[in-house]
Amino acid sequence: MKHRLPAVFLPLLLLTGCISKADQEPPTRTAEIFAMDTYMTLKACGAGAEAALDAASARIQELDDLFSVTKEDSDISRINHACGMPTVVRNETAAVIGTALAVGADTGYALNIALYPVLRAWGFTTGSYQIPARETLDTLLASADPKRITADGSVVVVPQGYELDLGAVAKGYTGDQVTEIFRQFGLTSGIVSLGGNVQALGTKPDGSKWTVGIADPEKPDSLLGKVEVEDCAVITSGSYERYFEGEDGKRYWHILDPADGCPADNGLSSVTVIGRNGARCDALSTALFVMGTEPAKTYWQKQRSFEMILVTDDGHIFVTEGIASDFRTENGKEAEILHGGS
Ligand code: AMP
Ligand code: MG
């Protein structure tokens, strides 16, 4: 239940078809690793691919060690156990926290990285699921005000009793870092899927765009559609990714609405954000999922700095105009194109 393997592997199946004439093209190497509590597949194309994969795998491990909420010596654990005192962390940890705080502030705090105690109360941190009492949620939410968190240079301060969790942004940032390493090794082509969050470097070696599958929230083992991309992140947040069913027969999923501490239930079953910066796309995918259908559309219309695919819980698909010609559905459903207007 914790990780639905089909949802994780879905985009990977598409990646395997990227080389058609392997003998005429530069070498392609793949690596599969388990880190950040998820399965990851890395594909690097070109001379130096093997060394790039080794460096990328080591870097993923390093980031897992920094961002893990369970490893005792991670930056996040040290922040969470600092009893209100400032914590000196790696600059990049403070920067990722800063990105999350900025996206939070810009989305009415739909993104809130201080919800870890609330996630724990639901059992999402252990798999021992339960529905917390309203008073429990209210008490925990009182110690989860993102406006009281500061991240400056290498110093992070959170009030006593607060616990941070970078689950909503860490994989997007990691995707950015992996493609950056590929670049440093001279590669111009590669693609990585970190638990279904995809980051593409350049195009396929033959110059065509990469194809990324978007899972159908109704049937996560199947595709809802495919999107063709180059040089960008494709990051999805979905209610189907991690959930449990209560005795009341209702589904309770892992993306919480900071307004009430309950699974965000504002009309969406998945949000895919497509853009250059993986960390920001990851932060936005979670925030827009929480905001819900109409606020997500309005936010995009105001920003226009990313593309997105929304799937509503009643089965409607919306795709923004910048990516519409690169997206096609698999299930015969129509996708409605969102226009920016003037
Ligand atoms: P994602 O799959 O990127 O949408 O991230 C979801 C993960 O972020 C969850 O599994 C939680 O660890 C955490 N999370 C849940 N709700 C929120 C929220 N509203 N803001 C920030 N992080 C959250
Ligand atoms: Mg996210």
- The pLDDT mean sits at 93
**How many structural domains are formed by the residues?**
1
- How much of the residues is beta strand, in percent? 25-35%
Corresponding CATH architecture = Roll
The fourth-level CATH homologous superfamily is ApbE-like domains
- Low-confidence spans: pLDDT under 50, at least 5 residues? 1-22
CATH topology description: T-fold
Strand order of the largest sheet: 1-2-6-7-10-15-16-17-19
- Taken from the alpha-carbon principal axes, the silhouette is globular
* Structural class determined from secondary elements: alpha+beta
Tally of contiguous helical segments? 10
Task: Sum this structure up briefly.
This protein is of the alpha+beta class.
Describe, in plain words, how this protein is organized in 3D.
With 342 residues, this protein is of the alpha+beta class. It has a single domain, classed as T-fold (Roll), CATH 3.10.520. The chain has ten helices and 19 strands. It has helices at residues 5-15, 49-67, 75-80, 91-106, 116-122, 134-141, 170-184, 278-291, 293-303, 321-324; strands at residues 28-35, 38-45, 87-88, 150-152, 155-157, 189-194, 197-201, 210-215, 223-229, 233-238, 243-245, 251-253, 256-257, 262-263, 268-275, 307-312, 317-320, 327-329, 335-338. It has a nine-stranded mixed sheet with strand order 1-2-6-7-10-15-16-17-19, sandwiched between helices. The chain has a three-stranded antiparallel sheet with strand order 3-5-4. Strand 6 (189-194) and strand 7 form a beta hairpin. Helix 2 (49-67) runs antiparallel to helix 7, helix 4 runs parallel beside helix 8 and helix 7 packs antiparallel against helix 8 (278-291). The chain starts with a helix and ends with a strand. Mean pLDDT is 93; it is low at 1-22. The structure holds adenosine monophosphate and magnesium ion. Residues 168, 237, 282, 285-286 line the site of magnesium ion.
